[in-house]
Design brief:
29 helices; 13-stranded mixed sheet; alpha/beta; seven-stranded mixed sheet; 31% helix
């Protein structure tokens, strides 16, 4: 499924934006392709919750079946559009032991595959709340796709599942380019499809990546060495005798090359264990005379046993899971080491390897070269390509002949001058803008230079290479300057000694043609012509001349010899899939609160291949996302808006409920055309402002729209304070959810009563959010029994007013039951009771603060014993059983409560649902529930409570109150009334962003644009004792003809004494709340309704 959006529509379309597929070949283990050093290298990172199936996904892709395995990195070759590419897939970077390399790995990725399990909705939620924001905050420019794993479990488990439509919708809202589902268990082809599609997208990003502006280096705040956590994890794995025997057999099979040792004994000198599936190389300790060791393509996290091989000369440990280079004590004479394609974060210190000549650290996650190589004077070849290096440093006075830094983050070649012995320099696919740092006097032996896929723009960069006498091989393709007319001819003219240009031999004929352009033979031909035809005029008939080149360059680029930062750009064909995904990503960032907080930027997208021109069709989506995220500053810049688009933005600023205060429209011409109308309707009093420089407005109007003054300062201060207050109140409310969930479970409508709850003396009833009833009951108990219940005072007054005197045995029983109750809470171990507990209490789970305040010290509190008796705890009951209300007593209480609630509902439904004008709309249960909250749950006995008037809660009813029409679209209630649209279902999963999913179906014979109004109220269908919800933002839903659309809504909850909705069905009511100032934040909504319910 490929994601795209059409205009302002939030509907999802499935179309093959990338019709080409990756043709897979040579799907062999990594060790078999170690000779692959292709110029084109793609890196795909998998990211998501640990345990969702990343490793099985990669095993299946490699053709090994879906089995569990340690984190690994797969490197293979594929064919894309007839060209060979090298591909690396890095296993789940969400694992805790990847913290140290995660930033570097993501920075080097060409695509991030966000993964979740289809049978684990929480893993999809974490994509929205943790992993996608991680990408945004890290500045990762690579596109992302979303993959639902374990599709084989769909429909086969009783647990909740993620519907495919919801998965696609979330992927769209996160800015993913694609969404698909797969199973590594029973459908390996689906895994191949997902990876093939991801490769096609990654390739498109790769070919345009050079346009990106360099960003800051990824940080590493971990104090621990990057690989220690993973090495400890492996060390803790069971490696029994049987496994050691199997490893020894593999080692024996891999031994070869019998030779003489320094002690004049015969021994095996070579061992090949490539692709053997090893977790450890401990079996090699015995073979101390080995000189050649190949352990590539395994799952090794440490090479510590190789420290015993003091004669080792050559080591190949590529394609493993190493996270450090120094994981073994140094051999005496190591000459070459290949640690490519591991997960190494630092070069490390190689000073102990004084004879090291070749070092390959290609395909790791190294951000800095570091000083660890300064002592390796014999080093001749260093490969650090496919890392995350941004500077050439710490290579001073090394004897390097070959240096490869391709596929990194280099912006300049500064520092290369210290490597005077260099013969070959490979810096392909970086972000280099100039090669002026290359000087012949610094690198007199340079013979081969590869700088293709960079950001070189000036042809004069080539002139600086003319002094290199031995330079014969040059690659400069895929730079902006390669778009210059007759680029290769210009290079051949400037560098006549070249033998190869852009991987093609420079033929003598090509050199001649290049020189002809620059007129090397014009004078000679003219002299010959005049000698033969002295009376004729000589005409230069060359098809291209130096002057012609200059003219073409001026025509194409506006200047001579400079292709500009992006070269030739194609005509605008509309948004590409990458551009559309980038726009949706910015919407997602706005919904999340902006980056930085409070700022939504829709202007600074970067290079052309990710840039998006904002138009009128985007305004509703942008304003909706900004409202959901409570954005304060909106940057639109020179957006291509019409007059109506500008007025829509001003209308959003004017709303009292809007958090938006600043809009930057610098350079937008429509602002200038609106002119006076804009000034007349602008909400100066709210402290709002617009930056309108460069729009054509007079200077005095620009200054007026900036609105600097006290009103603006006060508005900014209020917005910041309200944001902080709301965050604190939400955090406080969410901490009470466990207790509120228990209350909802006790009181909700069901066929049979739930198990008896604990009495009010139990700590469970003193948790925040539900402690009010217990505190009130204890206050009454304390007033009647100020002395409590103790061995000296065994008499007390009960709740019904009777006097009771307990025996000393019953008192001791109360003490034992108290200990059982505290142990049940987890305050101390259950076996420590009675006198032993007094002598050696073992605090465990902290008791509720209110409980401790009432009964401290709880281990000896006479008030707690008295309260237990007050609440009906029987001292003669089983001391080992849980402290719960008696079954019969509870069932009677529950049934009576249900009857009173149902009587209230019946009256409210008869009054408000009897003649509901629109289908799928109901309101009576809302009124009943709000009445219940006003009465604090104390419904009258013997008669039904009278429903409160909706006006007592600030609610208005459709039809009774005239409501202004929406600014855009058709009102949902009106469309339901005329049966142009229908509601298929409404599901509430909480409050806040994306807390309600609403599915609308088009019943009209035309496309619809439906307005879901801010302040619309949603209710539960029965007594769920959970939050009713207010729609917090104005929404526009585009519904194609004959289609249904799923829309995610942000909502406010209406009080703090109930649990959040938890996936149950909800209904739209006829009521709405239109106090715009209250609708500005969740905290203000709570303030208003708690006041209605008589709260604090």
């Amino acid at each position: 499924f490929w994601l795209t959006s059409a205009g302002a529509s939030s509907a999802l379309f499935a179309r093959p934006l990338y019709r080409r597929r990756a043709s897979l070949r040579n799907m062999s283990p990594p060790a078999r392709i170690e000779d692959a050093r292709l110029d084109r290298c793609l890196h795909i990172c998998l990211l998501g919750d640990p345990g969702v199936g990343h490793s099985s996904f990669l095993h299946s892709y490699r053709g090994e079946g879906a089995h569990r395995g340690l984190i690994e990195s797969i490197v293979t070759k594929v064919e894309l559009d007839g060209e060979a590419w090298q591909v690396r897939l890095t296993d789940n970077l969400g694992a805790p032991y990847c913290d140290s390399v995660r930033a570097a790995a993501l920075s080097s990725a060409h695509l991030v595959l966000l993964c979740f399990r289809l049978d684990a909705p929480e893993s999809l939620q974490n994509l929205k709340e943790r992993w996608a924001p991680l990408l945004w905050s890290s500045g990762v420019e690579a596109p992302c796709c979303v993959a639902g794993l374990r599709a084989d479990l769909r429909g086969s488990t009783a647990s909740a599942e993620v519907p495919a439509e919801l998965g696609r919708l979330v992927a769209e809202r996160l800015g993913a380019v694609a969404y698909d589902e797969c199973s590594a268990v029973d459908d390996p082809e689906s895994v191949q499809r997902v990876v093939g599609q991801a490769l096609a997208i990654a390739k498109d990003f790769y070919v345009s990546q050079w346009q990106l502006v360099p960003r800051r280096r990824p940080g590493n705040d971990d104090a621990e060495s990057p690989g220690l956590a993973l090495e400890r994890l492996v060390a803790e794995r069971e490696h029994g005798p049987q496994q050691e025997e199997e490893d020894m057999e593999l080692v024996k099979k891999g031994l070869s090359v019998l030779g003489r040792t320094p002690t004049r004994q015969h021994a095996y000198l070579r061992c090949d264990l490539a692709g053997a599936g090893l977790l450890s190389v401990a079996a090699l300790r015995r073979f101390e005379h080995l000189q050649f060791v190949n352990v590539s393509g395994n799952q090794l996290c440490t090479l510590e046993p190789l420290g015993a091989l003091k004669s080792m000369l050559h080591l190949n440990a590529s394609h493993n899971n190493l996270m450090r280079t120094q994981t073994f004590s140094p051999p005496n004479y190591l000459e070459s080491a290949d640690l490519s394609y591991n997960m190494i974060a630092e070069v490390g210190d190689w000073g102990a390897h004084q004879y090291l000549q070749e070092l390959n650290l290609r395909g790791n996650f190294i951000s800095d070269i570091g000083p660890g190589l300064l002592s390796n004077k014999e080093l001749r070849s260093l490969d650090l390509s496919e890392n995350n290096i941004s500077a050439i440093e710490y290579l001073d006075n090394l004897g390097l002949r070959f240096l490869c830094l391709a596929h990194n983050k280099l912006q300049t070649l500064d520092g290369i001058e210290s490597v005077a012995t260099l013969l070959t320099l490979d810096v392909r696919h970086n972000m280099i803008t100039s090669i002026s740092a290359l000087k012949n006097q610094d690198l007199p032996r340079l013979r081969k230079l590869r700088v293709s896929d960079n950001r070189l723009t000036l042809i004069t960069e080539v002139d600086g290479l003319a002094d290199f006498q031995y330079l014969c091989d040059l690659e400069m393709s895929a730079n902006p300057l390669a778009n210059l007319p007759f680029f290769e001819s210009q290079v051949r003219h400037r560098l006549p000694r070249l033998r190869s240009l852009n991987a093609s031999p420079v033929a003598a004929e090509d050199k001649v043609k290049s020189e002809v352009i620059y007129g090397i033979d014009v004078e000679a031909r003219e002299e010959i012509f005049k000698g033969l035809l002295p009376k004729e005029d000589f005409v230069d008939r060359r098809m291209m001349t130096e002057e012609g080149l200059a003219s073409l360059e001026l025509e194409k680029f506006g200047k001579q010899g400079d292709a500009g930062p992006y070269g030739v750009q194609a005509d605008d064909p509309g948004r590409t899939p990458l551009q559309d995904a980038k726009f949706r990503q910015r919407l997602a960032m706005a919904r999340a609160g902006g980056e930085p907080t409070g700022v939504a930027d829709f202007t600074n997208f970067g290079p052309p291949f990710t840039s998006v021109a904002i138009g009128d069709e985007d305004v509703s989506d942008i304003l909706e996302a900004a409202a959901e995220g409570k954005v304060v500053r909106l940057v639109l810049g020179a957006a291509k808006l019409s007059n109506q688009g500008i007025l829509d933005v001003v209308a959003a600023l004017s709303l009292p409920s809007s958090s938006l205060l600043h809009v930057d429209l610098t350079g937008c011409p429509a602002v200038g055309t609106v002119g006076k109308e804009l000034l007349k309707s602008f909400p100066f009093g709210r402290g709002c402002c617009i930056e309108a420089a460069g729009t054509g407005l007079p200077e005095d109007a620009i200054v007026a729209l900036r609105n600097h003054g006290e009103a603006q300062e006060l508005a900014e201060q209020f917005a910041a304070q309200e944001r902080q207050r709301t965050e604190a109140m939400i955090q406080d409310y969410m901490s009470e959810q466990e207790a509120l969930e228990d209350v909802a479970d006790e009181k909700c409508s069901r066929e049979a009563p739930p198990p008896p709850p604990p009495p009010l003396c139990h700590p469970l009833k003193w948790r925040r959010g539900v402690m009010g009833t217990a505190q009130a009951s204890f206050a009454a108990c304390r007033a009647s029994n100020p002395g409590g219940l103790s061995a000296e005072c065994l008499s007390m007054r009960m709740k019904n007013g009777s006097e009771v005197t307990y025996s000393i045995n019953e008192y001791e029983s109360f003490c034992a039951l108290r200990d059982t109750m505290l142990a049940e809470w987890g305050y101390m171990e259950a076996e420590i009771v009675g006198e032993a507990m007094k002598e050696a209490p073992r605090p465990g789970r902290a008791l509720p603060e209110a409980f401790v305040a009432a009964f401290d010290p709880v281990e000896t509190s006479s008030d707690l014993l008295c309260f237990m008796a007050w609440e009906g705890v029987d001292p003669n009951r089983d001391r080992s059983a849980e402290i719960r209300l008696p079954q019969e007593e509870w069932e009677a209480q529950w049934s009576e409560h249900q009857e009173r609630c149902e009587a209230l509902s019946s009256r409210a439904r008869a009054q408000y649902d009897g003649s509901s004008p629109a289908p799928a709309v109901a309101s009576g249960q809302l009124v009943a529930h709000l009445t219940y909250l006003c009465l604090r749950g104390e419904l009258p006995e013997g008669r039904a409570a009278d429903p409160r008037l909706p006006t007592a809660f600030g609610l208005k009813r459709i039809g009774e109150e005239r409501r202004p029409p929406p600014r855009r679209g058709e009102d949902l209630h009106e469309a339901l009334l005329t049966q142009r649209v229908g509601i298929e279902d409404i599901v509430g999963t909480g409050f806040g962003k994306e807390s309600v999913s609403l599915r609308l179906v088009n019943l009209a014979g035309e496309p619809l644009k439906i307005a879901i109004r801010q302040g619309s109220v949603l209710q539960h269908g029965d007594w769920q004792h959970r939050q009713n919800l207010l729609v917090s933002v104005d929404y526009i839903v585009h519904i194609p003809e004959g289609a249904s659309v799923l829309k995610l809504l942000s909502t406010y909850c209406m009080n703090r004494s109930l649990a959040c909705p938890s996936g149950g069905a909800m209904a739209l009511t006829e009521f709405y709340f239109e106090d715009a100032r209250t609708l500005a934040s969740q905290s203000l909504v709570w303030d208003f309704f708690e006041g209605c319910f008589g709260g604090p």
